Amino acid sequence: MQADSGDIDLAVAADHPAYAGHFPGRPVLPGVVLLAESLAALESPALGDLTAWTLASVKFVRPVLPGTALRLRHQRLDSGSIRFEVHGPDGPVAIGTLAPRRAPGSAP
Hints:
The chain is mainly beta. Helices cover 11% and strands 35% of the residues. The protein has a 5-stranded antiparallel sheet, with helices on one face. A hairpin with a 2-residue loop joins strand 4 (82-88) and strand 5 (91-100). The longest helix is centred in the middle third of the chain and has 12 residues, at 31-42.
């Protein structure tokens, strides 16, 4: 992430292979693909290696159909965590929080 907050366009191709089997006749982007695309967009020199982070929460609130324009909004919180929302034309499709991993043996 290059700043404490921002917006990033997410481009998931309408012919992404994940749509083919999820679900035949009414394709919906699997949540794991949406999450992977979001995390890849957030990964940067400021955020560092994503293995230093844990997914504290995620909720998928609306299906993503092929060709849906998506925008990732993110904000670093005072706690050091990163709150993110993925929006489509009709509002949020996913919301979540990334938290820094604690070093082994550190206090909670």
